[in-house]
Amino acid sequence: MIMKILITGGGGYIGSVLTPTLLAAGYQVTVIDNFMFQQNSLAECCQYETFNVIRGDCRKEDLIKEQLKTADVIIPLAALVGAPLCSRDQIGTKTTNQTAVEMICQLASPQQRILMPVTNSGYGIGEKGKFCTEESPLRPISLYGVTKVEAEKAVLARDNSMTFRLATVFGMAPRMRVDLLVNDFVYRAFYDRAVVIFEGHFKRNYIHIRDVAKVFLHGLENFESMKGKPYNVGLEDANLSKLELCAEIRKYLPNFVYLEAPIGEDPDKRDYIVSNQRILSTGFTPDWSLGRGIQELIKGYTILRNSVYSNV
To answer: How far are the Cα atoms of 47, 101, 301 from residue 43, in angstroms, in the given order?
Structure first.
């Protein structure tokens, strides 16, 4: 029997890579998405007889109830992402990122599996020099972080679930986002050859979008031994400050100039380093280094010329 997967928000940045990855691996995939950015990111998936797509709202109970009837696995990707978009639509952020996921948890049968991406931004501001593990306290400092932390609680309260606390994702995707930190800095380095940095010592962890798709496959294939836990998913050698990230980018774009502003502040106050040992101990290994991803982005930005590829 082919395993049937229901993905909400499957046409977004992560979904546009994950959906074709799952189809190519032999899964049957149904996507619910409102395609709010007018994207055609799943056009290539239409060749698969095992692909089904519904233009709809993941917050509609009748729609979710109907699609849950045939699903073995649910992957709730639908979310409003990023501080600017979340602050612009706070009600939409809470109802999509949190309430819709809580509804899925209530409607799904105990046998149905849920694998959900959340964010390691839930760690907020970490302790200096101390790695955040899955046991570290969650102190989200943005509306996005708060809604994701609450959604994760609902998912992990079930037996048949796991969550992936994703590092800041980077890399090319059919539904591209230029406003993510690595993607943004490479874009500026490529086109403007300069960036002004606020609070350049703030550290974050990073992960390539194709490794995000890979970790979902890993979770599906090792579900029984991995279920019931959250997993940090990031690169162990990429707990970098913004200044360190810029230095890495300059290896590939030598004309890139970056300056730290003595005044001003970054609206995103996250600052932490993360341990990814739990997911690595299950046998998962990322394929994409930061440097490989930067080179991919440089090729991508040779094609893309404008900023319609962001959430705001």
So the answer is: 8, 26, 21
**70 contacts: CB under 8 Å, gap ≥ 6:** 4, 30
Q: Where in the chain is the domain with CATH 3.90.25.10?
A: 181-204+236-303
Fold (CATH) for 4-125+134-170+209-235? Rossmann fold (3.40.50)
| pLDDT tens column, 92-128 | 999 999 999 999 999 999 999 999 999 888 888 888 8
DSSP bridge partners of 139:
none
- What is the model's pLDDT at position 84? 81
pTM as predicted: 0.95
Start-end of CATH 3.40.50.720 domains in the chain: 4-125+134-170+209-235
Question: What is the H or E stretch that residue 94 is in?
Answer: helix 90-94
Tens of pLDDT along 53-77? 999 999 999 999 999 999 999 999 9
C-alpha to C-alpha distance for 4 and 70, rounded to whole angstroms: 7
Parallel, antiparallel, or unpaired for β 203-208 and 273-274?
Answer: unpaired
Secondary-structure class of domain 181-204+236-303 per CATH: alpha beta
